[in-house]
Amino acid sequence: MGVRGSGEQAAAVLRRRPYKHPYAVPPIPGGQGLWQIRQVVTDPLGYVRQRPVQGGFVFDVYAHCRDAGGRRPWLHTAESFNSAVAWTIQHDREIRALIASSTPEPDAWPL
User: Fold this and answer.
1) What gap in Å lies between CA 60 and CA 81, rounded to an integer?
2) Helical segments of the chain, H only
3) CA 82 – CA 78 distance, rounded (Å)
């Protein structure tokens, strides 16, 4: 039994398979840490962003629009990537209602 050094932790992170889901598109092919969630190319629901927490990561879900302060509205935090994407798809109707009543997303996303 021992304490894992930072080199061992970095190696473990690099060995992990990249997160993938049919509805999650990274801005750069193979990129990790931020994904746009969309069922069709022209109609995104929002974004999932990976965030470190003590002992691992969580995945924050944001809507594809901007609030009055110019920020993307936070919607949900999940403990796994697939749970975050699934939650987004399951709440499609509510998210689309929020998008319709908010400022459109100004940032272009690579197709």
Assistant:
1) 9
2) 6-15, 81-90, 92-100
3) 9
CA-nearest of 31, 38, 22 to 82 is 22
71 Cβ contact partners less than 8 Å away, ≥ 6 residues apart: none
| Cα–Cα dist 78/3, whole Å | 28
Return d(Cα 95, Cα 105) in angstroms, integer.
Answer: 13
Does residue 9 come out as left (phi exceeding 0), alpha (psi in the -120 to 50 range) or beta? alpha
Nearest partner of 110 among 14, 18, 25, 22, judged by Cα: 25
Q: How far apart are CA 111 and CA 88, in angstroms?
A: 20
pTM score of the predicted model: 0.81
> What digits encode the pLDDT tens for the residues 35-54?
999 988 778 999 999 999 99
As a whole number of angstroms, the distance between CA 30 and CA 27 comes to 9
